[in-house]
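Exercise (ungraded).
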Amino acid sequence: MHRMLTKYPIWGGLLLLALFILPLLLSPYGLSLLTQVLIFGLFAMSLDLLMGYTGLVSFNHATYFGVGAYTVAILAGLGLNNFWLSLVLGISIPVLLALLLGLLVLRSSGPYFLMITLAFGQMIFALAWRWRTITGGDDGLAGIPRPDLGLPMSMWKAQNFYYLVLVFFAFACLILWKFIHSRLGKAIVGVRESETRMQALGHNTWGLKYLSYIVAGGFAGLAGVFYVYFNGFISPQELNWTMSGQVILMVIIGGAGTLFGPVVGAGMIIILQNLISSHTERWPISMGIIFILCVMYLRDGVVGSALKLRKKGRGNL
Amino acid sequence: CGTQVDNSKDPIKVGLLVPYTGVFTSNGVDITRGVELYLNEVGYKAGGRDIKLIKEDSQMDGQVGLQKTRRLVESEKINILAGVVSSTVAYAIRDYVVANKVPFIISNAGACDLTREKGSEYIFRVSFSNGQYEYPEGNYVYNKLNVRKVVVMAPDYAAGHEKADGFMAGFKAQGGQIVQEIYPKLGTTDYGPYLTQIKNADAVWVHFSAADSIKFVKQYAEYGLKNKLPLLSSGDLVDESSLLGQGDSAIGIISALHYSAALTNPENQKFVKDYTAKYGEGPNMFAEQGYVTAKVIVKGIEAAGGKVSDSKLLLDSIRKVQFDAPRGPFKFDAKTQNVIFNTYIRKTEKINGKLVNTVVETIPNTADDWYKGK
Amino acid sequence: MLRLNEVHAHYGESHILHGVSMKVEKGSVVALLGRNGMGKTTTIHAIIGFNPPTKGEILFNGTNINGFPPNKISRMGMALVPQGRRIFRSLTVKENLILGFRNNKIKDNHNLERIYELFPVLQERAKQLGRNLSGGEQQMLAIARALMTEPEMILMDEPFEGLAPTIIKDIGLKIEELKNSGLSILLVEQNIHFAAKIADYLYIMNKGEIVYGGTPEQFHSEEDQWKRFIEI
Amino acid sequence: MKALETKSLTKHFGGLAVLQDISMTVEVGERRAIIGPNGAGKTTFFNTISGVIKPNAGEIFVFGDKVTQLPPFRRARLGLARTFQQNNLFVNLSLLDNINLAMPPNQAKMTPRDFLDNWGWWDKSTIPVKEFSYGEQRQVELLLALAQSPRLLLLDEPTAGMSSVETNKITTMIRNLSREITVLIIEHDMDVVFDFADRITVLNYGRVLFEGAKDEVRSDERVKEVYLGSVD
Amino acid sequence: MELSEIVIQTLNGISYGLLLFLLAAGLSLIFGLMGIINLAHGSYYTLGAYVGLVIIQMTGNFFVGLMGAAVVLALLGIVMERFFFRKLYKRELDQVLLTFGFAYLFMDINKWIWGGVPRSLPKPTFLEGSISILGEAFPIYRFGIIVIGLGIAVLLWLFLEKTRTGVIIRAGVDDKEMVSGLGINIKLYFSGIFALGAFLAAIGGVIGGPIIGAYPGLDFEILVLALAVVVVGGLGTLKGAFWGSLLIGFAETFGKAIFPDFAMFTIYVTMALILIFKPSGLLGKEES
Ligand SMILES: Nc1ncnc2c1ncn2[C@@H]1O[C@H](COP(=O)(O)OP(=O)(O)OP(=O)(O)O)[C@@H](O)[C@H]1O
Ligand SMILES: Nc1ncnc2c1ncn2[C@@H]1O[C@H](COP(=O)(O)OP(=O)(O)OP(=O)(O)O)[C@@H](O)[C@H]1O
Ligand SMILES: [Mg+2]
Ligand SMILES: [Mg+2]
């Protein structure tokens, strides 16, 4: 939003380059973590569109992620393994759902929005839990094969799959970046700041929120598609509020309203949690303390604070 | 992993994946204690090699469990995986484990398919398949307790349904009648509205575990049903760790399980004594399952002469393991690699001021084969 | 009553007040004038303790109150009519008023009655939420709320904004009355002529500094000295 | 053509009748002032016209189009712009971003930069609006409405909180706006009102008390009584 | 349903509703009134239950345990407000992260001290057993909950409505600085209300203990229930939390009785319906 962010794409480019080279240096386990970071980073970015830019903290973002994933899993169960079909449906079904739910939840705002989204999210969680014939119930669906793109390389190979995710990740970054810096994106920020003023200025604020909700849902669905391909498995747990809570934390830690910050947030949470919990059973204490320290010392999230520092360093406004 | 060269100086790595957070924390802890108790007994050695136990918290979440399994396999390069309390986690990691050819000893997760349709030569289960001991219980209550009409209650999740199915199949096979089935949600706080509805039955059969089991048993008594309708259950309801919280409300409950801390065979007496000495409280089924898990692993490695990299040899050796466990005779069903055990019908009683599950009947050699008759 | 000595204040990194010195005698009205953004509100905030000065002394009845929390300063007898009203939007009019009342019993209506006499419309609107008042009504409420604390001194930051001419006249009279009863007032005002009419002394502020001070008489005769700071 | 027409506009808040049967027409290019005591219903009148609140009865036409049921943003797209009595800005965004949001994408006659330059604000364009003083924010409030390139402009006390220099500057600039633009202004500053308006409407208790040219208003006894006070 | 069953289910609904009120009352102060998103509220509740259990076991007296736990948690509340929340008013996202951090911290500490085994709190002896109503049994303890729940509701209502405290807190949420400009030490009030919120959470934990118990994971279960009640009722109104509790209590109870298969849905369907038709909760004031 600020001018200082105009240099951002350069950093983004460098980061992408690093992401491109990293797999060559990482252990297989490291690579699998990195793949997850990309998937969750994408998921968190999509939520940031809602949280950071539109000012709507949604507690059912996992719904769209999970529905995208279930779509792919169910298609696979039907023997439909075409990647492009799964991709298209894995995005459009969450989008359709967002079109529907958006009509119902966007009447509320603030904490009420938080809770009505929670309510719908949990209903869909319960549905996945109970509708055993389609969803496999709480046992979930397993055995989803990696996608076959008709390319000479197998996606079962971790590196190949990683690069596939990376391509889509980069593409999504680009689209989201463009979106946020378009007139529409700026207008969405305006809605966050003052809805009544935006209306007086001739903007259809409800429409803007609705649009943002749907776009965010679509990208969450995309993340879900890769998630299920990566794990080969999906269960209702991924639709639960705990999952939504996790991404919310990723967004906050990385810095809401910084778009790429949440990717860093996702990286921090996934990597730290894995490192710490492998070393001690007391990982929740450690994570808890890290969260608390983040709040007390990094006001605007990791990336937000870094940007602030840079701004200070340059000594102008 | 199977391609590794066997360097017999290196320790054999065993991964243990159980929950250390969430509602089923205590099960994870109990299993770990059982495992460590046995490994201590053998000095963390088997087949002449050291054993290194690497513990991971599954958080009762399939995704997390899979991630942890990846770490164990890819980063730690474990030779054997053990543990897993929740069936969801077991299903989530099943394909990965099989694809990576890691022998997997299930210490608790009861989902039937894990040793049926989704069975694999890499998967062993030392605990139970859902319904395995509930089915004979169904027979028992019809024949020996003359119960004819039963209300069935279990939490609304896969294990709850499978266990209830096992019981109902056993009960109906003898001519019993199910008057009502109720599946409250997992983690229900208030069972009052359900208890108020129960009518026209000879008894109530339930499966609840952990915190739910305490809430349910206390509320069952509060609503005055304890003295009206006998409470029958799968053994989880009156797990030794729940009895303390349930108090006298638990007295008189009939349950079925492959274990009771009150068993009097020498192996169990030693187990209870050692366990209590080490941890300051008595063992329960989970502790015993952990203990047996470790013993299966150690015996298997020994039979394979420590050559864990020879996977065929190792799997064969594990499959053939047999010994006297605290629960009684232990062996695998060679076809499914699921355990065959004695089913104990127990009655919760207060003896010397302490609640125990006294064994009232032993049904030997229970395999997971009841469904075949369906 | 009130004296500022070389007061400096900052918002974050930006230095706003550069050594402001001024004084308000007991029972007098002092007006502070200046164009937008010159630091008038910052001065007021420095005095009440919202934005404590980074340097300098603020003596209130002889005590240096620099660094005191606002609630303490207020209890010493200082009240504020803030710029932009800042009434409590989710409280009713009456609740807004009783907040200023020092004796913690709600029942004592003595003060309320006097306030309602001055602003009858507030009584009519007593149960209405602050956010639903008209602009002028909010302004009246902000003045009334300050009076409820029975202060010795009031800081008024553009208190007449949005008030109808008749009301301004009424309040002008009320200020006269309060002044005569010993109340001191520091008044920030944009309307120079009006300020010169009711004040005993005037200061003009420019870019965080006091650039002029004088009585209304001097003020009228010395127009050439201050005009450029106000009218260019 | 008429820029604005209301027919029997009526609004109640609970038992309180805030607008009663207001019928008013404003010709294209007219400069109309709306005055009246605090709480008379002036802001509410603007709110119903701009669509922030729905009237209980009556109809509203903007340039001949019936807009009574339209949401606010549709009315804005007909060329209606308004300011708010209480600042309603994008306080965390820079001044430039504020203006960007206000300028219609294609039909804008100038770039945001030219616009800000024109009004003398370009040098502050990168500062977040929350760091402006109150009076400066009041000016931004007005800039936002002007940036919309409106055909019908509703100004709710635009000069409140501004220094006299700015007040003069603003009135001059509004007066010099093209005569294609119709302006309605609510003001309590009578200098501004009489300086600027062609016609004046006086509201009192939600009713039109008087409407006429400015000289007629000055001499009307009722208006003097309820609003202006005795002229001295 | 027979009459007797309707009567008992109604009693079930009331008692469950008031139990919900007990576990949400504290949150309705901290979140509803003060506007702090406290995701550690369930942790306060759980900690309260554990501390209460320890004190009851030591002293053998339920009410000593009740008050002891409440005081311990109130102190904890003061410390947390003073050193953490005070810096974070109006910064909702930071509050989410902070309190989530604390929720993790307390979760682990609880497990550390009390282990993973579910615990249950004893009842005071005079509330044990059940009485017969129209031939059906109903637990006496649930009458106790009804009485205590109503009692606390009335006391809180009196405290917030009949003293200036409620007004000061709401004003502080609107504009903290301005309140202090009126001579009120708003920090003290905020600390106080925060402490009271934690105090009430502990009361909920001990009173609810004999029915719900204390175990790992309880913290988040309670959190979701309490949030639901407070938000559905409408933020900032104690009455809202009260009616919200009763409504959800009834919906849950009769949902279980009439549609036992859909127990997983009832609470969320209720919430969604209310918020669709009243986007600011049952008694919440709509922002204009
Ligand atoms: N939402 C509301 N609920 C109840 N009363 C309201 C509401 N909005 C406005 N009012 C009342 O309606 C009356 C008219 O308000 P309005 O803001 O239109 O006055 P105004 O003429 O603009 O006054 P001012 O000159 O003080 O700004 C006021 O008395 C106000 O208290
Ligand atoms: N929160 C803030 N952060 C940074 N700078 C600020 C802030 N508030 C005010 N300023 C700056 O401080 C200077 C003085 O502001 P102040 O509000 O004291 O002016 P003022 O004289 O009261 O003006 P006005 O007549 O417009 O009310 C202005 O240049 C303003 O931009
Ligand atoms: Mg000012
Ligand atoms: Mg007005």
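Further reading is listed at the end of the chapter. For now, observe: The pocket of magnesium ion (ligand 4) is lined by residues C 134-135; D 42-43, 85, 156 (CB under 6 Å). DSSP finds eleven helices and two strands in chain E.
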